[in-house]
Amino acid sequence: MKIKIVTGYDGDCPFRQATQANLDEYCTRWGYQLATKFDGWKPIDRNVSWRKQELILTELKDCDWLLWLDADCMVVNMTIPLEPFLDGDFDLAVTGPFENCSGCGKAVFSAGILLFRCCQWDQDFVQRWWDSHDEPWRQGKLANCRWDVDNDWLSCCALAEPEIMAHVKVIPLSAMGHATYHDDPTQFIMHFYGSTGELKFGEFRRYAPLVIR
User: Fold this and answer.
1) Domain that holds residue 108
2) CA–CA distance, 93 with 78 (Å, rounded to integer)
3) pTM for the model
4) E-only strand ranges, 9-91
5) CA-based angle 175:180:185, to the nearest 5?
6) For the packed helices 51-59 and 120-131, what is the interaxial angle rounded to 10 degrees?
7) CA angle 53, 56, 62 (to 5 degrees)
8) Per the structure, how many domains does the chain have?
9) CB-CB contact of 62 with 123 (8 Å)
10) What gap in Å lies between CA 84 and CA 87, rounded to an integer?
């Protein structure tokens, strides 16, 4: 079984080396492939947060499972492999929910930790996610949804569709990774969501000595 972990960032990333070193160590330990992209991006006609879908579409091949981690995610327990999270009964796993959207009231899931079973459904889903940028899907209550640009369609629109949720598994934050950082070095993944670049770098340095190996 081939498992790939993918991350990337477009722009100045002070925590780039910390992310790379952390994921290098984890993938080396478990025999996973690591794919990162921090340079060489072509111009984009939207917010750079959409680089996620662009990179996932490129890497969602030549593997059985793909774990997307935002570049501000960190494995804090190296002893936990990905295999226990794999389930052939779903095509996409999301973590959450962690709060409700102030616009539509729907549960919000993390777009920073995503587990794909590499198949045509996943390719079509990520392509639709990318294409949603140009779709007039914001209507009625959805008009006030203002998540982190690429997460609003995922949480407020896509995961509200029963035909999509039939392919999706929800993994509790406590089992895989919080959508924000907590003083809990025993959790599997931390996502330093919502802080500035320098603060994220400081958080990486803070937790690095606490990583369980």
Assistant:
1) 3-210
2) 20
3) 0.93
4) 33-37, 65-69, 73-75
5) 55
6) 160
7) 160
8) 1
9) no
10) 8
> In this predicted model, what pLDDT tens digit does every residue of 107-156 receive, in sequence order?
889 889 999 999 999 999 999 999 888 777 666 667 778 655 678 889 88
* CATH code of residue 7: 3.90.550.10
Sign of CA dihedral 106, 107, 111, 114: negative
- 135 class by beta-carbon count within 10 Å (0-12 exposed, 13-18 middle, 19+ buried): exposed
The pLDDT value given to residue 185: 66
The token duo for 38 is 């921090």
3-class state of residue 50 by DSSP: helix
Contact assessment for residue 38 and residue 87, using Cβ atoms and an 8 Å cutoff? no
Residue with tokens 């774990």: 67
| Whether residue 184 has pLDDT greater than 90 | no
In contact, 30 and 90? CB cutoff 8 Å: no
Q: Residue 133 and residue 33: Cα distance in Å, rounded?
A: 30
Nearest by Cα to 181 from 204, 148, 197: 204
For the chain, give the number of residues: 213
Dihedral of CA 173/176/177/183: which sign?
Answer: positive
